[in-house]
Every structure is written in structure tokens, then in C-alpha cells.
Specification:
The protein has 160 residues and is mainly β. Helices cover 14% and strands 38% of the residues. It contains three helices and twelve strands; from the N terminus they run E-E-E-H-E-E-H-E-E-E-E-E-E-E-H. The longest helix has 8 residues, at 51-58.
């Protein structure tokens, strides 16, 4: 369809129960400050990976614009210009948990998130010269953290 000699592409419809937002990469990072990545079959496993680290993994540029489908639990990131899928993730805000810096156990350089056939892990920034890796650890179940809050040693007192 053309309006004023500009081609208007049909945009994807917003999923039921989601809000449609248009943000820059910087605003996207601010929106998910202190949030952690969740995975697993039902996205019920909270990982020791901040959403900011995951956005770096997806290649999000602070100066570009993005379209979000977002609700309380999930976010889908789309390219603002083409409406192409960039990433989909579940998240949980943990403001009481400080983010950590990870260094390679072999050479001491920074680790960056990467995805392999068994999920996300941290790899040395100096790969392939250094093959140091660290698994992204599980910090708790989504349900327990929502109910009881974050615990440093992953100990949750369940009430039955």
C-alpha cells in the first residue's frame, strides 16, 4: 500500500496479551535493568545471565530503533524497519541481586555469552586463541524466586 508515495509494509499484529512498544536499544537496556534471562521448557529456570548480556548476544545497537511485543513475563524483539524477528526471551527482575563480571578461567580475559547445541554458555572473548568456557548457572526456579525472593545460596523454604 502507498501513502504519500511511501511504501507502507504491513506490520505483524501484536500477540494477544502483549503490548506493542517502539524503543531504542538504549531504552531497551534501561527497560530490562536488573532482569535475568529465563529458559527451560516453560521458561521456568532463571539463569545467571542478565538481559543486558543477552541483548549484547543478540547484537542490539543502542542507537537503533526496535519494536517490542512485551508482557509481564516475555519479550519479543523485532527490527523496527523490517519487522523481522531478532529474539524472544523470558525475564525476571531481580533488583536485589548484583550483576557479576565473569573472567576466563584460563587467561583472565572477559567472557561473553554464546549459544551452543546445549544452550547458552560464556566463552572467552579471545576465542579461538583461548578455549576457556563457563556454563551459565541456574540461580533458581522462576516460581520460587517470585514467591520467596532471590536467595544467595539458592535455598528456598517451601511452604506446603
Amino acid at each position: 500500500m502507498f501513502i504519500n508515495d511511501i511504501l507502507i509494509l504491513s506490520m505483524k499484529e501484536v500477540y494477544n496479551g502483549y503490548n506493542d512498544k517502539h524503543v531504542t536499544g538504549k531504552e531497551l537496556r534501561e527497560l530490562f535493568a536488573n532482569c535475568y534471562y529465563c529458559d527451560g521448557r516453560h521458561h521456568d529456570s532463571v539463569r545467571d545471565l542478565t538481559i543486558s548480556e543477552y541483548l549484547d548476544f543478540l547484537g542490539i545497537d543502542d542507537n537503533k530503533e526496535y519494536r517490542l511485543f512485551i508482557n509481564e513475563y516475555f519479550c519479543k524483539v523485532l527490527n523496527y524497519e523490517t519487522d523481522g524477528d531478532i529474539g524472544f526471551f523470558a525475564y525476571l527482575k531481580l533488583s536485589e541481586r548484583p550483576a557479576e563480571k565473569y573472567v576466563c578461567p584460563k587467561c583472565g580475559k572477559n567472557l561473553i555469552p554464546k549459544e551452543g547445541k546445549f544452550g547458552i554458555f560464556r566463552s572467552c572473548i579471545d576465542y579461538p586463541n583461548c578455549k576457556g568456557i563457563v556454563n551459565v548457572s541456574h540461580i533458581g526456579s522462576y516460581e520460587d524466586i517470585k514467591r520467596f525472593g532471590y536467595r544467595e545460596n539458592n535455598i528456598y523454604a517451601r511452604k506446603y
